[in-house]
Amino acid sequence: GRRYGLTGPNGAGKSTLLKIVMGFEEPTAGTITRPNRVGILRQNISAYANDRVLDVVIMGNNRLWAALNERDHLYGLEMDDEIGLKLGDVEGIIAEEDGYAAEANAEILLHGLHVPQEYFEQKLAEIPLDMQFRVLLCQSLFGSPEALLLDEPTNHLDLESITWLEKFLESYKGTLVVVSHDSHFLNAITTHIADIDYETVIVYPGNYDDMIITKSSVRQRAEQEN
Fold first, then answer.
1. How many other CB atoms sit within 10 Å of the CB of residue 69?
2. How many CA atoms lie within 13 A of 118 on its CB side?
């Protein structure tokens, strides 16, 4: 239920810290514990270049995507009892993951971020670059993740799409960690600010403006004491 804005001066290590939490970089000390389902805003557009836009979004749920591929594979084999049992198991996973509504749920996200309908069946590389970034943002939001890790999610978004994303995140029930230079966006969505300063992360309750007020008063007190 907590939504953290990760802030700090340029070069403080915001994106590096987020990459460590995501598991993309190794920590120099300590351990990382993540829930089973984490939505990550990926930047590796080229990895999905030849995939259908709707499929790229559905790939946000790894368990569902693996089950859908397994089902396709099994249907290509000659049916026997063993294959039938495996199919039953796979169909069970697809049902658990709301797989029969996957395309409809993916379309809701794409519409929310104003990706035109005519792009849904195209390959990712065939649509404009700003829309490709929006598709990857939809991928991170798909499948009810327990935690969301978003690095600059408002890049490539227009005002309407940012407003939709704010509403989506305000109603999000999991844990959010977001890096953003957009103070208005941070004010709208955060319950806490995790500020990196002097190689330390200090967590402030409230939004970005609340953090600035608290930080300024602490600094003034320190100066007065000096």
1. 11
2. 3
Q: Which amino acid is at 114?
A: H
Q: Cα angle at 113 between 182 and 194, to 5 degrees?
A: 30
- Give 110's Cβ-side CA count (13 Å radius): 24
Q: For every residue of 47-102, which 3-state class applies, written as one string?
A: HHCCCEHHHHHHCCCHHHHHHHHHHHHHHCCCCCHHHHHHHHHHHHHHHHCCHHHH
The answer to whether residues 165 and 153 touch, using CB atoms and an 8 Å cutoff, is yes
Q: How many CA atoms lie within 13 A of 115 on its CB side?
A: 28
Residue 155: burial class (beta carbons within 10 Å; 0-12, 13-18, 19+)? middle
More confident residue, 44 or 78: 44
Q: Using the structure block, give the residue that is written with the tokens 């007065």.
A: 224
**Residue in the structure block whose two tokens are 């990459």:** 19
The structure's pTM equals 0.90
Structural contact between residues 94 and 100, judged by C-beta atoms closer than 8 angstroms: yes
